[in-house]
Structure formats: C-alpha cells, structure tokens
Amino acid sequence: MIRKLYALCGTDRTRPFSPHVWKTKLSLMHKGLDFDVAPVGFTQIPRIEQGATKIVPLLRDGDRLVSDSFDIALHLEATYPERPPLFGGEGGKAAARFVEGWSQMTLHPMIGRIAIMDIHDRLDPVDRAYFRQSREQRFGKPLEAVAEAGQADIETFSAKLEPLRHMLKFQPFLGGDGPLFSDYIVFGALQWARIVSRQCLLADGDLVTAWFERCLDLHDGFGRSVTAA
C-alpha cells in the first residue's frame, strides 16, 4: 500500500516545517508505516486531491483520505491496532487532547510571532504574498510589527514550558518511559521553531532540551533528517 503525506514546505521542498505535519510524520514512524512525502506550498493546498482539504497534513492511506493531525493519529490507532500504540487507551487520548490545547494555545502563538518573518522569507513569491495578506488580516498589523512583538515572546518562552518541565522530573517522556502522541504534539511545535528560525528557544541543561534531543533521536534520528535553521 502506498501512503502519501502532503506536507507544507517553503521554497526548499526538502524542509517541511509545519508542526502538524511533524506530529503526523512521527506518528507514522511510531507505527512503523512506510509513506511518501508530497511537499506543497500554501497556495497549492486547495488543489491537492481534487480539493479534498484546506489544511495539511493530509494523509492518503490507500483509498482513505484523512486530514488534521489528531484525526490522522486516531485513524492510525484504529486501523493498525497491532502496531505500537500512539495513545495507550482512552485516557491517553483525553490527555493528548489537553496537551494539544496547551500547545496550540500557548506555544504556537508565541512561535508564530517569533518566527513570522523567517517563515515569510522561506516561501515562494506566490506563497509569500498569500502569507503576508492572510497573516496581516489575522493579526491586524503588518508582519514586521508582529515580529517586533515576538521579541518579547523570546524572553518569556522558557517559562511557558514549565508544565512540561515539571512532568519531565518524573519520567523521560510525556508518554512515560517511551513516547506517545502527546510527545509528538509538543515536539512538532519545537521542531517547527528549530527548522524555520535561528532563534534559540531552549537552554542547555534544561530538562525540556534533553527531552527534545531524545525526541530528535527517535526512530533512528528521524527528527534530525531536516537540519536546524
């Protein structure tokens, strides 16, 4: 069976950066499933699979199309139950929903502001124009002003990781002794920052930094297959 994962990229199609795509890539690796990556730019998304989605990741798994990283993880768990679990039961699914909410409401907005010009500058011209128009409409200000506000986020970013830091005092992964989808959720956000921005958001000697390095090493170092910015 050929699985195809549509992944958001900039001008360099070998450097997919979407945090949601990285969640899905590690979920597929976790399950030991082969897949091909189909890189797309922002303005190509509405045209893939005959307009099947407005977002990526989009996974074609045989005849099935699944979008949204959490829905893809649920699909993989239900379709391949004999392979390593991504959630470890219903409680794990509920915990992952909480982690997803924390990550997307706390980490994503900060990384988005910090790296907004880095993302813009890595896009094809047509995607660059779309990105500027859509983000300036979202934020109600020029990208440059958003980036200026993001400088303050750099100073406070580490403090926002305290819930993760606290948990890592007791176990090496959010999933316990090994990773689960909850780990991939937070990893996706930090991998996004690592790939698009040269701004260092994690400090040496931090428990979160050690955890992130362990995640980069998972699945034969798959997270390191794209180098840091």
Overview of the structural elements:
By secondary structure, the protein is an alpha+beta fold. The protein has a domain at 3-79: 3-Layer(aba) Sandwich (Glutaredoxin). The protein contains nine helices and four strands; from the N terminus they run βαβββαααααααα. Helix 1 packs across helix 8.
Can you describe this structure in just a few lines?
It contains nine helices and four strands. With 229 residues, the protein is of the alpha+beta class. It holds the Pfam family GST_C_7.
Proportion of beta-strand residues? 5-15%
- Give me the CATH superfamily of the domain at 3-79: Glutaredoxin
Could you say what the CATH topology of the domain at 3-79 is called?
A: Glutaredoxin
Q: Provide the CATH top-level class of the domain at 3-79.
A: Alpha Beta
Structural class: alpha+beta
Largest sheet: 4 strands, mixed
Instruction: Give the proportion of residues in helices.
Output: 40-55%
> Span from first to last CA?
34 Å
**Gyration radius, in Å:** 17 Å
What best-fitting shape do the alpha-carbon axes yield? Answer: globular
Average pLDDT over all residues: 97
The tally of strands reads 4
Numbering strands along the chain, what is their spatial order in the largest sheet? 2-1-3-4
Low-confidence stretches: none
> What's the helix count?
9
CATH hierarchy: architecture of the domain at 3-79:
3-Layer(aba) Sandwich
Order of helices and strands: EHEEEHHHHHHHH
Protein name: Beta-aryl ether-cleaving protein
Domain GST N-terminal: 16-84
Domain Glutathione S-transferase UstS-like C-terminal: 96-198
